[in-house]
């Protein structure tokens, strides 16, 4: 066993020992948080797809309105199956916790670069545009 593996194993043992009797409550709260985050992601995806289809930017899909009482509660079966397939592929291809961390880091950097480039392009466009017409 190498020195690195020994340190990693000791750290993991110390982490679980430090949790003590709080492991199961922490586990329960983490699962509830994951359930809420999953629901929020699917709801946001359904809403974005509905708006994109309404604007003509996305092909028309079957949209099921799940409530007659509350406006905006929708379900899109095709998108739901797509999210399931993508999640399963992601879970099956990840082989270690380090890969999950790397994927998160890559996504964070990619989104940050994309947003910064969009902001810079917007600012350059506004700076070069003739603003005298907007008095």
Task: Considering the chains and any ligands shown, give keywords for the structure.
2 domains; 135 residues
Can you walk me through this structure?
The chain is mostly helical. It folds into two domains: about 20-80, no CATH class; about 95-135. The chain has helices at about 5-20, 25-55, 75-95, 95-130; strands at about 65, 75. The chain has a two-stranded antiparallel ribbon. Strand 1 (about 65) and strand 2 (about 75) form a beta hairpin.
Concise structural overview:
By secondary structure, the chain is mainly alpha-helical.
β-strand percent reads: under 5%
Which strand order spans the largest sheet, edge to edge or round the barrel?
A: 1-2
| Fraction of residues in helix | over 70%
Q: Tally the helices: what do you get?
A: 4
Q: How large is the radius of gyration?
A: 23 Å
Order of helices and strands: HHEEHH
Q: Pairing-aware structural class of the strands and helices?
A: mainly alpha
Low-confidence stretches: none
Major sheet: 2 strands, antiparallel
Shape, principal axes of CA atoms = extended
* Ends apart, CA distance between termini: 73 Å
Mean residue pLDDT: 86
**How many domains comprise the coordinates?**
2
Could you tell me the number of beta strands? Answer: 2
Write the layout of secondary structure elements.
Blueprint: H1 3-19, H2 23-55, E1 64-65, E2 74-75, H3 77-93, H4 97-128
Antiparallel strand pairs: 1-2
């Amino acid at each position: 066993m190498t020195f690195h593996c020994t340190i990693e194993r000791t750290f993991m043992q110390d982490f679980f020992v430090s949790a003590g009797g709080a492991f199961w409550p922490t586990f329960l709260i983490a699962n509830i948080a994951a359930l809420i985050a999953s629901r929020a992601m699917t709801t946001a995806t359904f809403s974005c797809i509905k708006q994109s289809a309404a604007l003509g930017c996305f092909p028309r899909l079957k949209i099921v309105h799940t409530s007659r009482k509350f406006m905006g509660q929708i379900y899109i079966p095709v998108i739901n199956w797509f999210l399931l397939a993508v999640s399963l592929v992601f879970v099956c291809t990840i082989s270690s916790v380090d890969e999950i961390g790397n994927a998160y880091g890559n996504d964070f950097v990619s989104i940050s670069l994309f947003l910064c480039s969009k902001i810079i392009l917007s600012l350059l466009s506004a700076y070069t545009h003739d603003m005298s017409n907007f008095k």
